[in-house]
Amino acid sequence: MDREAIAREVRRRQVQETLEFEREREQTLKEQIEIVITEVEGKNVDQAVFARMSPEDVEIVEAELSPPSIESEEDTSFFFERDDLINLDDEYVDPHAEELARLNAELEDCRRRQRAFEAYLDALRAE
Fold first, then answer.
1. What are the domain boundaries of the chain?
2. Dihedral pair phi/psi, residue 17, rounded to 5°
3. Does residue 81 surpass a pLDDT of 50?
4. Distance (Å, rounded) from C-alpha 51 to C-alpha 117?
5. How far apart are CA 37 and CA 100, in angstroms?
6. What's the chain's average pLDDT?
7. Which residues contact 59 (CB under 8 A, 6 or more apart)?
8. How far is the C-alpha of 22 from the C-alpha of 28, rounded, in Å?
9. How far apart are CA 94 and CA 85, in angstroms?
10. Where do the DSSP E strands lie in 51-94?
11. 9-17: average pLDDT
12. For 98-116, how does the pLDDT look when each residue is reduced to its tens digit (9 = 90+)?
């Protein structure tokens, strides 16, 4: 039994699994960034595109892209509060900008972790 070979194989497998997780995490973060950007820019895109479509087609597409919202009057128990949107200083804070900054920082951390795991695997193969 070659204990070092076993340890190397287990480490390789552990790092490979973690690297795959980070790659999936990167994709998820990219998709989240796209969603936030779409929340900000989607209406402008829709207006431009809808101007070139028939009203019937616009109605179909608009219904899919803008599902009905929950009305607080319909459900008296409905309550929604986002502390990150409440600003007591009377200064406007763009929650999308903050979320994009947070997601981009996470994305950079994810990519940095991937580089470290790839370096580990490269060094492991070199021995």
1. 3-66+94-126
2. -65, -40
3. yes
4. 49
5. 8
6. 85
7. none
8. 10
9. 8
10. none
11. 96
12. 899 999 999 999 999 999 9
